């Protein structure tokens, strides 16, 4: 990777992707766990952070820390500029039309809850239908269930086939005059399925039904263009795309956001307050009550700068190569079944081993310094769909290498050895 | 590897593979479900009493090797014990897996339960080992017979 500087003021000289160089940007990866080099394959849970992001957040606390949007003093102005610059970077990153369409939240979960509690409570009533899919994370199930419970609305679920692909014909038939909202996951955190969301948005829009996409797993693995997708809302978390925890983004089309009531009330979201009446602030502040995670926001801005400096296209191609390699290697292990074999897949690999519970797999792999996720992955309905209580899941990021997949394969053989 | 071998001792591997008292009891006096919502492990413990004596015990459900072996060993050791004796064993087992008890002192008196001493080295797995016991405890402390928490 060549130093390129900031894309907005310096011409990008050269972009390249060298995975070993990229690994050097992530200090945590060079540590030992249980006397073995760390093999971090739990990226779908959270990714590691590059030095540039850690530095940006440290620098913020060292040099700029102050509250935003309110002080007239030097530091407050500086902090406000850094925080708002990150919003503009996010807007460009997503190709959103306007910066005020970018709402800062704590994460994907809060983004979805915000839409359910504001747009949902205002526009969805008794007997109305909300469509989600069979492969949702709990964060895109529970907020809608809560709304349905309150309003007497009905939650409908798009089924999937045994490969983990949504049944589009069933979805199309589900859309009707009672459908008031569609909320689906872009990439499944368990199955890795990349859903045909553009087509799904189009089908819903034919009936003027708004669509939210849960992009938590998509943003780190593909270029997301919200205007090309034409979705009405898009929610994701910074921490799964090499950014800090506690920072998330809700993108919403301007007209939707404008018409929605505020989410939380408090400071920073108002124009004026009297005991008789409060006038709410303009977008995006209407949805950002209270002092936000300023350092996190600044860190997220640095994350986007970092991703701008590397060749994201090649990084994505590298991840695809890792997935193909791992799929081939794991498939050849006797008694191993891969859960989720969709045609279009991102670098998430769930699997089960005959007769061995995922928790035991996780503990034994950890002894070799290999970090994977085991359990239901906050997607119990997906587990039920496949008739399993839990899976083991290896998920790859752009900094993973084939050698780590070889270590995983050796580790799985060791698991089998312990249990035979 | 040593800590791992301590965790997956022969007794545990054996009870995982061939769990004892692993069936649904037809006419239990009590039946209680135990869940670990974090990982989805789920067991049902069935009990038959003769006054305050645990006359029979069985379990069914699914989970990892540690939780299944724990349920199996638990069912073997509490069968024929009084409720008070079973509760006392729970306390000692809990101290063992959380690392509060000295396994060397306990090894003679805990019998097969001592096989779980390795769990204390794996904090993430303490809940696996104790889930069946918590379920049993809930069953023993519920009032009256033929009560289900379902």
Mean pLDDT of chain B: 88
Residues in helix, % of chain A: 25-40%
Assembly state: heterodimer
List the total number of helices of chain B: 6
CA-atom Rg of chain A in angstroms: 22 Å
Low-confidence stretches of chain A: 1-13
CATH superfamily of the largest domain in chain A: Type I PLP-dependent aspartate aminotransferase-like (Major domain)
Describe the largest sheet of chain B. 4 strands, mixed
Outline type of chain A: globular
Whole-number count of domains of chain B: 1
CATH topology of the largest domain in chain A: Aspartate Aminotransferase, domain 2
Rg of chain B, rounded, reads 14 Å
Question: What low-confidence regions of chain B span 5 or more consecutive residues with pLDDT below 50?
Answer: 144-150
Largest interface: A-B, 17 and 21 residues
CATH C-level of the largest domain in chain A: Alpha Beta
* CATH-defined fold name of chain B: Sufe protein. Chain: A
Name the CATH architecture of chain B. Alpha-Beta Complex
Q: Can you tell me the overall shape of chain B? A: globular
Provide an overview of this structure.
The complex is a heterodimer of chains A (420) and B (150). By secondary structure, chain A is of the alpha/beta class. Chain A has 2 domains: 139 residues, Aspartate Aminotransferase, domain 1, CATH 3.90.1150; 251 residues, Type I PLP-dependent aspartate aminotransferase-like (Major domain) (Aspartate Aminotransferase, domain 2), CATH 3.40.640.10. Helix content of chain A is 39%, strand content 16%. Chain A has 14 helices and 17 strands. In chain A, the strands form 5 sheets. Chain A has a 7-stranded mixed sheet with strand order 4-10-9-8-7-5-6, sandwiched between helices. A 4-stranded antiparallel sheet of chain A has the order 13-14-17-16, with helices on one face. In chain A, strands 1-2 form a two-stranded antiparallel sheet. In chain A, a hairpin with a 4-residue loop joins strand 11 and strand 12. In chain A, helix 3 packs across helix 10 and helix 4 runs parallel beside helix 5. The N terminus of chain A is likely disordered. Chain B is α+β, with helices and mostly antiparallel strands and 150 residues long. Chain B has one domain: Alpha-Beta Complex (Sufe protein. Chain: A). In chain B, 45% of the residues lie in helices and 19% in strands. Chain B has a 4-stranded mixed sheet. In chain B, a hairpin with a 4-residue loop joins strand 1 and strand 2. In chain B, helix 2 crosses helix 3 and helix 3 runs parallel beside helix 6. The relative contact order of chain B is 0.21. The C terminus of chain B is likely disordered. The chains are: A alpha/beta (420), B alpha+beta (150). At the A-B interface, helix 12 of A face helix 1 and helix 3 of B.
């Amino acid at each position: 990777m060549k130093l390129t500087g900031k894309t907005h003021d310096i011409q990008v000289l050269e972009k390249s992707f060298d995975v070993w160089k990229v690994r050097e940007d992530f200090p945590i990866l060079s540590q030992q766990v249980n006397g073995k080099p760390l093999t971090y394959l739990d990226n779908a849970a959270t990714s590691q952070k590059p030095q540039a992001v850690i530095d940006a957040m440290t620098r913020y606390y060292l040099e700029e820390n102050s509250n935003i949007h309110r002080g007239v003093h030097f530091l407050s102005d500086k902090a406000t500029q850094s925080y708002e610059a990150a919003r503009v970077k996010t807007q460009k990153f997503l190709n959103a039309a306007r910066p005020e369409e970018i709402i800062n939240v704590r994460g994907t979960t809060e983004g979805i809850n915000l839409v359910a509690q504001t747009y949902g409570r205002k526009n969805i009533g008794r007997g109305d239908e909300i469509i989600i899919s069979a492969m949702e994370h709990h964060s895109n199930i529970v907020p809608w269930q809560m709304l349905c419970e309150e309003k007497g609305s009905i939650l409908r679920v798009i089924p999937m086939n045994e490969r983990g692909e949504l049944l589009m014909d069933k979805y199309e038939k589900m859309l009707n005059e009672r459908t008031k909202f569609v909320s689906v996951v872009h990439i499944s955190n368990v199955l890795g399925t990349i859903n045909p969301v553009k087509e799904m948005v189009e089908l819903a829009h034919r009936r003027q039904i708004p669509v939210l996409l849960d992009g938590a797993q998509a943003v780190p693995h593909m270029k997301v263009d919200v205007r090309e997708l034409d979705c009405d809302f898009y929610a994701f978390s910074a921490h799964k795309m090499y950014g800090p925890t506690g920072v998330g983004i809700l993108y919403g089309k301007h007209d939707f956001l404008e018409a929605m009531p505020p989410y939380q009330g408090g400071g920073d979201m108002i124009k004026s307050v009297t005991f008789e009446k409060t006038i709410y602030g303009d977008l995006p502040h209407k949805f950002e009550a209270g002092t936000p995670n300023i350092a996190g926001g600044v860190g997220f801005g640095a994350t986007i700068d970092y991703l701008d400096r590397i060749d994201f296209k090649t990084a994505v191609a590298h991840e695809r190569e890792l997935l193909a390699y791992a799929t081939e290697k794991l498939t050849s292990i006797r008694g191993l079944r891969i859960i989720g074999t969709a045609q279009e897949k991102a670098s998430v690999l769930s699997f089960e081993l005959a007769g061995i519970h995922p928790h035991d797999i996780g503990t034994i792999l950890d002894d070799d310094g290999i970090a994977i996720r085991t359990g239901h992955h906050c997607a119990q309905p997906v587990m039920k769909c496949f008739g399993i209580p839990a899976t083991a899941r290896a998920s790859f990021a752009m900094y993973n290498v084939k050698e780590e997949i070889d270590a995983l394969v050796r580790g799985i053989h060791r698991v089998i050895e312990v249990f035979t | 590897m040593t800590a791992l071998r301590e965790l997956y001792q022969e007794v545990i591997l054996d009870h995982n593979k061939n769990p004892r008292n692993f069936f649904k009891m037809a006419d239990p006096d009590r039946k209680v479900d135990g869940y670990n919502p974090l990982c989805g492990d789920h067991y049902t413990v069935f009990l038959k009493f003769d006054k305050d004596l645990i006359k029979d015990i069985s379990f069914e459900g699914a989970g990892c090797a540690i939780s299944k072996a724990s349920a199996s060993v638990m069912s073997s050791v509490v069968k024929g014990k009084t409720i008070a004796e079973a509760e006392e064993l729970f306390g000692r087992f809990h101290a063992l897996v959380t690392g509060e008890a000295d396994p060397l002192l306990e090894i003679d008196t805990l019998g097969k339960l001592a096989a779980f001493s390795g769990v204390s080295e794996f904090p993430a797995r303490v809940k696996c080992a104790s889930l069946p016991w918590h379920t049993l405890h809930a069953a023993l402390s519920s009032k009256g017979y033929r009560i289900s928490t379902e």
